[in-house]
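Retry 2 of 3 after timeout on previous attempt. Resubmitting C-alpha cells to design endpoint.
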C-alpha cells in the first residue's frame, strides 16, 4: 500500500528531488522546527490536561498568545492520528484538535502553526486547495459523518531573543461534504506523479530537479544541494532557477 502524508505532497510540489532526499538521507532538524515542536507540546498539554504555559520559557510565551483562539482544556479531542484509504493509497496525518461536533451536521478540526511572520499565514482561499486541509477535512467527513467541516488553522508568532511576546491569529474555512469530496478527488489526481514515483521506487536521477527551490530553506538553502547539484554548471543552475 502506498502511504502519503500532506508534507510529502508539499515537498514534492516544491521539488521532487528534495522529496526523495528527505526520505533517503539523514535529516537535520531546523531550529525553528524544533521550537515549533516545543510550542506544540505546550499547547497539547493545555488542551488535554489544562497545564498552563510556562511564561518563563519562550515556547510558553509563544503559546499563551493563542489560547483564546483554541478550545478550553478538556473540551477537544487532542492529537488524533488517522490513516485514510483512498483509491488504493493511504493518506495519513494527525489532527491537533477537534471540537464542536454536532452529529450529522458539523465539526471543527484545528492545527497549530508556528511562524516567524504572521504574513505567511495561509488565507481561506489558499486553504481551499492546501493538501493538509483537504486530506484532514475529507477524513473528518468520513470519521464523524457530518455535512460540513470547519478547518481552523491557528498561527503563532514565535518568541525570540528580540521578540519577547508572541501574537496569534486564526484562519478558518468551512466547506460542505460534496465540496470537500471534490477537492480530495482533485488532490488525489494531482498526486499521481508522486504516487507513481513511490510505486516504482524511482531514484533521484529519474526525478525533476527544481533549481528555483534550492534557496528556499534558510539559513543555508537546501541541505541536499551539494549532492543534488553535483555535476551541474553554474550556468545550468542559473537558467534552471530562472525557468523554475
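Retry 2 succeeded. Sequence:
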Amino acid at each position: 500500500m502506498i502511504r502519503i502524508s500532506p508534507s510529502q505532497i508539499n515537498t514534492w510540489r516544491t521539488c521532487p528531488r528534495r522529496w526523495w532526499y528527505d526520505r533517503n538521507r539523514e535529516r537535520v532538524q531546523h531550529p525553528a522546527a524544533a521550537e515549533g515542536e516545543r510550542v506544540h507540546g505546550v499547547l497539547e498539554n493545555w488542551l488535554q490536561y489544562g497545564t498552563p504555559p510556562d511564561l518563563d520559557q519562550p515556547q510558553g510565551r509563544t503559546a499563551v498568545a493563542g489560547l483564546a483562539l483554541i478550545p478550553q482544556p478538556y473540551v477537544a479531542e487532542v492529537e488524533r492520528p488517522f490513516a485514510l484509504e483512498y483509491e488504493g493509497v493511504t493518506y495519513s496525518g494527525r489532527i491537533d484538535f477537534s471540537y464542536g461536533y454536532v452529529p450529522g451536521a458539523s465539526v471543527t478540526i484545528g492545527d497549530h502553526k508556528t511562524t516567524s511572520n504572521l504574513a505567511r499565514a495561509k488565507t481561506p482561499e489558499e486553504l481551499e486547495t492546501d493538501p493538509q486541509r483537504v486530506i484532514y477535512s475529507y477524513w473528518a467527513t468520513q470519521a464523524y459523518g457530518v455535512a460540513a467541516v470547519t478547518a481552523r488553522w491557528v498561527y503563532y508568532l514565535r518568541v525570540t531573543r528580540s521578540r519577547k511576546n508572541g501574537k496569534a491569529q486564526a484562519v478558518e474555512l468551512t466547506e460542505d461534504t460534496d465540496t470537500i469530496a471534490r477537492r480530495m478527488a482533485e488532490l488525489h489526481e494531482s498526486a499521481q506523479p508522486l504516487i507513481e514515483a513511490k510505486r516504482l521506487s524511482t531514484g533521484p536521477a529519474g526525478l525533476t530537479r527544481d533549481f528555483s527551490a534550492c534557496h528556499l530553506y534558510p539559513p543555508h538553502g537546501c541541505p541536499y544541494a551539494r549532492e543534488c547539484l553535483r555535476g551541474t554548471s553554474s550556468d545550468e543552475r542559473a537558467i534552471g532557477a530562472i525557468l523554475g
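Attempt log closed. The first strand starts at residue 2 and ends at 4.
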